[in-house]
Amino acid sequence: MITRQQRETIGRLIASQATAMATLQQADLASEFKANAAFDYVRASYTLEAYPNGLVEPKGKTAAAVDGWITWGGDSGGWPTRDGETLVEVKWHDGRMSKPFCAKVFDWRHLGVNGDIVAYRIVK
pLDDT tens, 33-61? Predict the structure, then answer.
């Protein structure tokens, strides 16, 4: 049988654990917010650099290649190469670039996220 003192001690422990968990959750949310704000800043900077006139290519259309990079609009329903085995490098909306992989391993759709492919080039 649990005594009244033991119940009170357990109650205090549970309350203090709940407070600690809430504090950790708030810290995690603040950290996530800061990371997202920094990520949005980088994305905006990349967009301004990639499209200095503020215009973005219409979906599904590509522009002439610059240094081998071809802009990608995202809605062709598949990869842009004739064959999914073709080696390509891609640039994502957030500015990252891939190493060469087969075209079929990438998600070529545009979902309005930082992972959308904005350009690609065929690796010879």
Answer: 555 555 554 444 444 444 444 434 434 44
Strand arrangement, sheet containing 117-122: 70-71, 117-122, 87-92, 101-102
Handedness of CA 89, 90, 95, 97 (dihedral sign): negative
Query: Is residue 65 assigned to a domain?
Result: no
11: region left, alpha or beta (phi > 0 left; psi from -120 to 50 alpha): alpha
Look at the block and give the residue holding tokens 């949310």: 29
Q: Are residues 80 and 51 part of one domain?
A: no
Residue 12 tokens read as 């205090």
